[in-house]
Amino acid sequence: MPFSEIFHNEEPVGTSFVEAHPLPLPTRVAFIGNYLPVTSASTRGMQSENKRMIEVGCESLKWLVAEQHRSDADIFVPIGSRECFVEGSAKARFDQQPVEACATISGCLLAYRLTSEQLWLEEAWCAFRWFLGENDLQIPLYDAATGGCRDGLHPDRVNENPGAESTLSFLMALLEMQSVEIATVEELNQEMSVTI
Length: 196
Known about the structure:
This protein has helices spanning about 5, 15-20, 35-45, 50-65, 100-115, 120-130, 165-190; strands at about 30, 85, 140-145, 150, 150-155, 160.
């Protein structure tokens, strides 16, 4: 059964289905659609309490995140939208778009919530810093003066247009990062509190 059909099945996914139809890791990546199978596998696994589906979603995301770093593991480099990336070939470096960083953050935070693995929180922060200037051009896309977010990175410059999709991508990413930090602080406060 093709990977894409697995997630259009309306019946609950059980362990026997996953064992009968092992999910492959992705080999082609194109624009934001690359996160749909990852988040679908993890979400469906969570809903059906199927640990294998959660594992597959996280394994796929781990592969994808690894592909989105350059030699410096601290810099997030979304796969460029100029062409589809095929595993084993050179990936398009540009045009990098905010929607990719936002989707990476969402995927990593979902994986963090499902596994509590610190790696996913670190990867989410790495992708978030891309908006703030830790990117190939070392130029922020988020503009604190206007509250807008520029439309992306070209090889030689930032796309100066502060489009709605880009601004919403930044704002969604900001809210997600704030929510996980608030949850982390609340957990820390609970651990430190003394019950009388």
